[in-house]
What we know:
Helix content: over 70%
Radius of gyration: 27 Å
Number of strands: 2
Number of helices: 15
Amino acid sequence: MTFSQNAGSGRRREGASLPRRRSPWISSFAMILPSLILLMIFYFYPMMKLLPQSIYEDHAFTLQYFQHIFSEPVYIKTLLRTIWLCLATTAINFILGYPVAYLLSIVKSKTAGAIMTIILLSLWTSLLVRTYSWMVILQRTGVVNSFLLALGIVSEPVQIMYTPAAVLIGMVHILLPYMILPIYSVLRSIDKNLSLAAMSLGASRTKTFLRVTLPLSVPGIASGILLVFIQSLGFYVTPMLLGGAQTLVASGLIDRQMFTFLDWSFGSALGVILLLITILFLGVFDRFFGMDSLQKRLV
């Protein structure tokens, strides 16, 4: 046997001993398969059941439930109130959350850790407990009214509970961490040398922030807006407890139709409209921020 034949047989033996590599897409699909199964069972399947129930009555196609929603002022008012509360919650969270996130990105690590612990404390507490705490604070005999009466600002307790203001306060408090955390993660990843370079070229701190830091933090801002708005659309416990029947939102209206009046078809139609509002928001969001560019910049 020649040397080349020995070398060839040796290479074949080495090649035979190497394990066969999987395709990258197969490995990725195997990793996300459990999540896909859960989504199919608990999300997509209920959604597929929801739509037919809203457009069929006795096996016949109908749009009467949607017509009923848009013909009754009370339902239109409830949907508009829901959208307004979601937009207001998102805007206030951005106004309050961005300075906190920026502060976290520039202070020392120990100070940032202490502030972050305070922020995360709200996430470690039950949603129901936090909502009941606001009920104690905002009621007629609560902390706010007692403080206003003690200072002589008002002569009698102010009605704060069961108003849009009470719902807005509770939603802002509960969703604020979801605005702070993504903005902070992006601000922390920005190279500090960029700001130093801008200031070395004559830019003031304000101009450096507006021209360098703020544009680079847009992915975090976009993520915070997306998280807060979509979560606030489906809020149920906080609006029901702080707003009551006087400040009904879409989730409470759906619950009332399905479990009080047992009108599942009409409740399904309301759910479909809420889903369409979410899809519309995602379309506008993609138009202004871009899902693909956002994902690339965050990753």
